[in-house]
Task: structure prediction
Amino acid sequence: MRISFLHTAQVHVDTFDAIFKTLAPDAVLSHHVMPELLSRAQADGLNAVRGETTTTLQDMLSDDAVMCTCSTLGPIADAIADEHLLRIDRPVMEFACAQGSRILVAICLEATRVSTTDLLADCADQMGVKIAPEVLLIDAAWPHFEDGDLDQFATVIASAIRDAVAVQEYDCVVLAQASMHVVEPLLQNIAVPVVSSPKMAAKRAVEIARSSM
Result:
């Protein structure tokens, strides 16, 4: 079983290596780390990296499954429309839609807002459910991620989410970017489910890979 990844941060390599060590130790993983794609998309818009991202993902499609782990680049992965290609945030958005209409979507980058909310709406439409999502932008956390301070990154996000759920009831909280999975342990004692994308996407990638073998 061969699974390829397109990442925009090196930290995701360790994340998925650890997940697959338990989930599917027989899988052969290939990581492609291209942080410049996210930087250019933030600065110049998604179309500025559409061609290079498309080519990179298409070149991986000889493997059994391919995952794009960057939420901002997700719409480009969707546009390729290949059954072996998965955008990381689709499984978690499907899960959130199944929990109820009141969904709090936490993001740390404004550049990922549209791609994230469009995906959530698409999942709701396909599932035939009505949702009332609310986006919580926690941009103060992102510099800590860029500095490699994941503890402070998680602390800032957790604090903002705790403040939000203290004044409003939600059926689910989605940590919309893969990097935000580190927040989950800090929010285990709040009443609402808090979910992130890496483990759910990894399980889906294994399903895709096994179906194509």
